[in-house]
Amino acid sequence: MSDVDTYLAGLPADRQAIVNAVREVILANLDSQYAETFAGGMINYVVPHSVYPPGYHCDRSKPLPFAALASQKAYVSLYLMGLYTCEDQKQWFQQAWAASGKKPLDMGKSCLRFKKLDDIALDIIGASFRRLPAQLYIARYEQVLKKK
After folding, report:
1. CA–CA separation, 38 vs 50, rounded Å?
2. Rounded distance between C-alpha atoms, residue 56 and residue 147, angstroms
3. In this protein, which residues make up the domain named YdhG-like (predicted)?
4. What is the CB neighbour count within 10 angstroms for residue 60?
5. CB of 6 within 8 A of CB of 103?
6. Which of 36, 100, 111, 133 is in Cβ range 3.0-4.6 Å of 121 for a Cys bridge?
7. Could you report the per-residue pLDDT of 89-117, keeping only the tens digit for each?
8. CA separation for the pair 125, 82 (Å, rounded)
């Protein structure tokens, strides 16, 4: 599978509805310096090399990852690396989600897991993308790298 449209077309209808809804919110709130790509069986949102030439510190040939969206075996996953690298963003996100009235978060360090569209606070997801434009994300990412 090589592109987003092919990936989406191959999903079951129920998963397609969830992924499309989340993707629409992401695209509506995504800073123009990010790019949507497809790799690793997921829709990826990255800071391309044209914006951040150093790329991802673990593999400089890859762009800096920011978020990813995927239909997994038992749920849909949304990976938000900004929650992993920016503690204040993570605290805001968790508080906003709790106030949304949605089911409690099923969340790892940066991974949110959803089984139904009704489980997702789309407004909070949109706001989380707006809160981290690419240049701010890059600055936060570089701060984390300096601590290592």
Report:
1. 17
2. 16
3. 15-127
4. 11
5. no
6. 100
7. 889 999 999 999 998 888 887 799 999 99
8. 12
User: What are the structural domain ranges in the chain?
Assistant: 4-147
* Secondary structure tally for the chain: helices H, strands E: 6, 5
Rounded Cα distance between 138 and 54, Å, is 11
Residue 2 banded pLDDT, cuts 50, 70, 90: low
CA distances from 148 to 57, 61, 86, 108, 136 (A): 12, 21, 15, 22, 19
In Å, what is the CA distance from 124 to each residue of 35, 97, 134? 21, 7, 18
Relative to beta strand 111-114, strand 35-39 is: unpaired
The pTM of the full predicted model, rounded to 2 decimals, is 0.93
